[in-house]
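Pasting as-is:
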Amino acid sequence: MWQTDTTKIMRVDTCMSLFKLFMIFVKVSSFTIGGGYAMVPVIKEFIVDKYKLLGEDEFMDVIVTAQTVPGVIAVNTAMILGTKLAGLWGAVVAVLGSIVPPFLIILVIASFFADFADLPVFEGFFMGARVGVTVILANLSLQLMKKNIRKYLILAVIAAGTAAIVLLNFSSIWILLISSVCVYFIDRRLKR
């Protein structure tokens, strides 16, 4: 195994490391309630913060890619991260680690759910879980927005410039110059 810096990936080449990758996704999928998007911050905690297998920017690129590919984001994320960290077998073990525990948990819950669904304890648990998942998703959204605020501001400048040219008939040369200056200062200010 090797690691250069936090923005580079660490190669995972041994069987023990495949097991470790599998266990990361088993832990995440076993103890995260709320679906794929609720799993993303927990996956980040393991992959970026705890084991430092990827840098934060590279992890965010993985999440963006996982969102654009058809399918469940948790499985897409597991597949992409597994492939990045350990190739084909990494993808296989990461995907298995992300789908087997929820499948087994749902199987057990479904077999007993009708008998216990009306108990106040379970109703309270599901209400609390709903609040917790909402907070986790809001936190993830804020993290993603903070990372991309520069892009949004630049897009707003471009949209305003386009609207000024098309709707208000302003000179495209002046709008290009003003937009360029705005983008320069936005980029410079947000990099600090």
